[in-house]
Records
---
Amino acid sequence: MKDVNEKREREKRTVSEMIALYCRKNHHTKKGQMCAECRELAEYACLRSDKCPFMEEKTFCSNCKVHCYKPEMRERIRRVMRFSGPRMIFHHPIMAVSHVIACKKEKRRIERNERG
């Protein structure tokens, strides 16, 4: 169970950092702060991670077949990911590389399972 909790916390840290980066660059907040809109999105994303029943099997929400975000929040998080994803390598290189590796592994695992 410890592994799932670590995974959950890592996902929450990653998404929070991505939202913070988006907020800093688009809403011109200071480092370590977020505007009310981005703070709401970060809290929502963390709540969804806390309630996720698939945490053991999946790596990231983008790889999940069940979309538990409300449509409006899903669009907001998608915008954040599109903006922050490519920039994470400059702001959080270890987190970014870990994310890419985990995504590649997950993609290979899914392809293996689909082939049977």
Note: The chain has one domain: 2-115.
---
Amino acid sequence: MRYSRCSSQELPNLSQFWSQVQSQACGCPDPLISDLYAVNICDHSDFPSALASLLGAKLADRSITESTLTRLVAKCIEEDISIAGAACEDILATYERDPACTDLVTPFLFFKGWQALQAYRISHFLWKRDRRPLAYHFQSRINERFGIDIHPAAQIGKGLTIDHGTAIVIGETCIIGNNVSLFQGVTLGGTGKSEGERHPVIRESVMIGAGAKILGRLEVGAHARIGAASVVLEDIPPYATAVGNPARIVRVDTPGSGD
């Protein structure tokens, strides 16, 4: 049974979600993987606890220990439960969009794009509370650990999927709406302007193909599609498909016509 996603106005039912994740993980018959499932999923009473433990283990280094990081992440989630809600929505989006994802456990444990995104959400929380050196430390560790570079000041909605993830770059003043899909090698970057709003605005339900580069303070409209390896230097209207270098619009769908 598929878990139902919530509307954009409400938080998901984290208890229901976590019960389903545990039911998928805790019956694993493989003795070589069952301990991994137990430590990361089955031994945790709720999703925020498991998420804090996972990020603590993934991002620890010699300067900040796993236990310290786990407590920090848990405190951030306690202060802003929408972090856990967005993490849940990101898993559900991955489950719905990625044919290789057959359950809710897989992105949580094994997809570095999802894990990097949740670590970014903690760094963004810290950035907004003026703990900027710590936020930068998270950014650095995310890059080292996952090969994904997301500035902690970037504004990212929920329901995001980062497929494969390697070499994704998201700049400081970038804004990304809900339900966006990014593939490996995507750059949402600037064009050399030294200050101000210099990174793209990506509206809801956009798909950006592998290796695409979107540069400067331009807007990609809702439900648009950017082809792999495209270089986008101008605004793309909603429901358009753009390909090439420089990108050109090859199709504009009618809203509601389906993808």
Note: The chain has a mean pLDDT of 93.
